[in-house]
Design brief:
Layout lengths: L3 E5 L5 E6 L3 E6 L4 E7 L26 E2 L23 E7 L5 E6 L14 E9 L3 E9 L5 E3 L1 E3 L2 E3 L7 E3 L5 E4 L2 E5 L4 E2 L5 E6 L4 E7 L5 E9 L3 E6 L1 H5 L13 E8 L5 E3 L4 E10 L1
Antiparallel strand pairs: 1-2, 2-3, 3-4, 5-11, 6-7, 7-8, 8-9, 9-23, 10-22, 11-21, 12-21, 13-16, 13-18, 14-15, 14-17, 17-20, 18-19, 19-23, 20-21
């Protein structure tokens, strides 16, 4: 049986639909962006805004946008925020269905999509999705040049929650963070709560965090987010005022989403030696 099929929206965006015995998912070729993931018999593990209009050249608000080869605002303010990979057309290079009902999809950003003004380096970037009843996403960098390459990156994961006022995030103890370019501050306890705009960039962070929310019955539900080859992560919720300024974002979307992003930023930024490979991985599941 073919669990992976290719489709195209009326706007021209192409996507892969995955309908396996273990999950249902949707991955767009633009940005290699997984926009929907739902384990069978459970609620979705990724959030996406209903304000999206799915236009070419515009990143989708939700799922897991790929921030590469820089995270946030570049030193050159005229360059695009979060890099250029999330609006480029990626190519599917492998689709594998295994006997354990898992699906593996690998995509690459073609050299023709690299803008030498932004990225003059000889390198390769790939993303690999492993879809079971959990989701594993890996961003792979290969330095093919004779010189070291510096970059920052993030898997900008959006998660669905019942109510931002009731959400807590655990697994943060002893990490450092900056917020709104202030700090660093020490995370003294293990939990973070939300009562205002939150935009924390964590450093020296443990590999597993948990989002404590509720299901549609009001019972506790926990999303577990783990990382490999990453000591940094971003915790973000725009709150009330910024929600009104964001594109492809409804005024009250902040109530039902939060971002917890696997990253290589700050002291965890990459310095990739000639010939070296780096694999940033995040795994997401209902705990």
């Amino acid at each position: 049986m073919n669990w992976v099929t290719k489709h195209e929206l009326a706007t021209g965006l192409e996507y892969l639909e995955i309908d396996s015995p273990l999950c249902h998912a949707r991955i767009f070729l633009q940005g290699a962006q997984i926009e929907f993931f739902q384990p069978k018999g459970q609620t979705p593990l990724l959030w996406s805004s209903t304000a999206n209009d799915y236009q070419t050249g515009i990143s989708i608000r939700g799922g897991i946008p790929i921030c590469w080869p820089w995270f946030g605002t570049h030193d050159n303010p005229d360059w695009p925020a979060h890099g250029f990979a999330r609006i480029k057309q990626w190519q599917v290079i492998e689709v594998k269905q295994a006997d354990d009902d898992s699906v593996t999809i690998k995509m690459a950003l073609p050299q023709s999509e690299f803008d030498p003004e932004y990225w003059p380096h000889d390198s390769e970037v790939l993303v690999e999705f492993v879809l079971t009843d959990s989701l594993t996403v890996s961003l792979i960098n290969i330095n093919k040049s004779s010189q070291a390459i510096s970059l920052t990156q993030a898997l900008h994961s959006y998660f669905p929650i019942a109510d931002i006022h009731q959400l807590s995030v655990t697994g943060l103890a002893d990490a450092d963070y900056i917020e709104f370019n202030q700090g660093p501050y020490k995370q003294e306890d293990d939990k973070a709560f939300f009562d205002r705009e939150t935009d924390r960039v964590y450093d020296k962070l443990g590999t597993i965090q948990k989002l404590h929310t509720q299901n549609d019955k009001g019972e506790e539900a926990i999303i577990q987010v783990s990382r490999e080859s990453s000591q940094s992560a971003v915790l973000w919720n725009p709150w009330i005022d910024k929600s009104k300024r964001l594109s492809r974002f409804n005024d009250e979307d902040y109530l039902t989403m939060v971002c917890l992003e696997a990253a290589n930023v700050r002291s965890d930024s990459l310095e990739l030696a000639p010939g070296a490979t780096h694999k940033l991985t995040t795994q997401i599941k209902w705990a």
